[in-house]
Amino acid sequence: MRTLVSLLATASALAFLPGCSTTQNVTAGPQVKNSPMTTACFTAHGGRSADMDAAIQRNLENHGVSVSLAPKCDNADMSVTYTDSWFWDIVMYLRSMDIRFYKAPSGGLIASGHWKNSVLHQFPNADGVVQDLMDQMFTQTGEPSAVRTKAASN
Fold this sequence. Notes:
- The chain has helices at residues 2-16, 50-62, 126-141, 150-153; strands at residues 23-28, 39-42, 66-69, 78-89, 91-103, 109-116.
- A hairpin with a 1-residue loop joins strand 4 and strand 5.
- It is built from 4 helices and 6 strands.
- By secondary structure, the chain is an alpha/beta fold.
- It has a 6-stranded mixed β-sheet, covered by helices on one side.
- Helix 2 runs parallel beside helix 3.
- The protein has one domain: Double Stranded RNA Binding Domain.
């Protein structure tokens, strides 16, 4: 009986653990080679996402990318879009985040980053999530240098 209870407790714990992990993955797209990434056309959301707009723009600039806001983008190397999802649990918290770099003007995917909070969520610093995703995206693409500027470390 004791063995059965131990076995059930272990099985329950193992089934429950995957729900405790936050996931992040970055994928290089088919346009990653020979895609300059020095100027970006950024599609800002505004309104309630103004903080995320600022975090993404700041992180692009920290990686040496000159940013223009859509639709006033001429001659940009890439387009940057994102989606963010927020939930309520005592306070608003970031549930998921997707960032995509597309080659301009063709629209081919250069890189995409996805972050998702766990079921037993944390209350993450949204700017930190953007920073981690972009660091990994720039590392994966190799341009510009994935080394962050001094402004990013402040």
